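for the recovery benchmark. tokens below, seq after
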């Protein structure tokens, strides 16, 4: 039987970068699918997942730099894929990597990643994914052991394999992302990626040359010590999912465990940061 969903329509002023921030925060709050149109952002949540405090966790609604209005109505389940297909355009990063859907033309870039995200995060359109792709393109992953923590669609793990990593673990706490990553990994003929549903508690006795984690500030601050305990000497830690203002906190946390800051990338207030062990 079809599920009942709540369809929220948000208008954010200013829309740039407000819509992107809103979509990221709604994703963390449990919303499942997003469509941007001329009215703003339309977001869907299952009625039985909704609780009165669900919007309390969406910081942008309380942030005085933005004006956020919304309305909502109940609807029956939709064909999310059809909505998504209308809105998903291929994205090219640094002339080297294209992230696209199966129905887009094959690109001429060195790396071609085919993603059907459905309701998972990680199409390359978000600033944080884009910058993590840039970092992966700049680092030599040949023969490396890689962890993609918070893998979403699996886009970063897939790129890591295409760049020559030979042993990749991809972990996501969300059941839907786990299933979607497995599908996308098969779709891209990857053979060296293992996907797990879970969190940093799965990392006992593991070791990696490169750890990628695009999650959010609070989870990173909590889990950074666990990631570092799995990082080989000279290993690289690439983090994103937070704003420029959060860099000092993230840097302090990593430096407490003797990691060295190398550089950060920045796009529309979002950042990605590289550390070395
Ligand atoms: C911002 S998305 C990143 C997706 C993809 N890696 C990318 O770069 O586009 C963050 C992902 O982390 C997952 N996540 C959230 N908390 C987590 C945790 N504690 N451990 C593992 N994954 C987590 C979410 O389900 C979500 O798929």
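predicted aa per position
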């Amino acid at each position: 039987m079809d599920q009942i969903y709540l369809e929220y329509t948000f208008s954010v002023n200013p829309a740039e970068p407000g819509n992107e921030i809103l979509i990221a925060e709604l994703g963390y709050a449990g919303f499942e699918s997003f469509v941007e149109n001329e009215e703003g952002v339309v977001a869907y949540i299952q009625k039985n997942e909704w609780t009165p405090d669900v919007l309390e966790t969406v910081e942008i609604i309380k942030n005085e730099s933005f004006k956020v209005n919304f309305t909502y109505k109940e609807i029956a389940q939709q064909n999310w894929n059809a909505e998504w297909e209308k809105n998903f355009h291929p994205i090219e990063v640094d002339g080297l990597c294209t992230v696209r859907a199966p129905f887009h033309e094959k690109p001429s870039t060195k790396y071609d990643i085919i993603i059907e995200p459905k309701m998972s995060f990680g199409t390359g359109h978000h600033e944080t994914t884009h910058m993590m792709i840039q970092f992966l393109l700049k680092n030599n992953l040949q023969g490396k052991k890689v962890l993609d923590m918070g893998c979403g669609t699996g886009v970063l793990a897939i790129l890591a394999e295409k760049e020559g990593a030979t042993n990749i673990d991809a972990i996501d706490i969300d059941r839907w992302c786990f299933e979607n990553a497995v599908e996308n990994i098969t779709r891209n003929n990857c053979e060296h990626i293992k996907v797990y549903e879970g969190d940093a508690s799965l990392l006992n006795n593991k070791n990696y040359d490169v750890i990628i984690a695009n999650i959010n500030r609070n989870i990173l601050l909590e889990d950074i010590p666990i990631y570092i305990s799995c990082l080989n000497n000279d290993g690289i830690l690439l983090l994103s999912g937070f704003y420029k203002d959060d860099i000092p906190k993230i840097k302090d946390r990593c430096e407490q465990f003797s990691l060295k800051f190398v550089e950060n990338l920045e796009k529309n207030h979002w950042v990605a940061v590289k550390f070395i062990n």
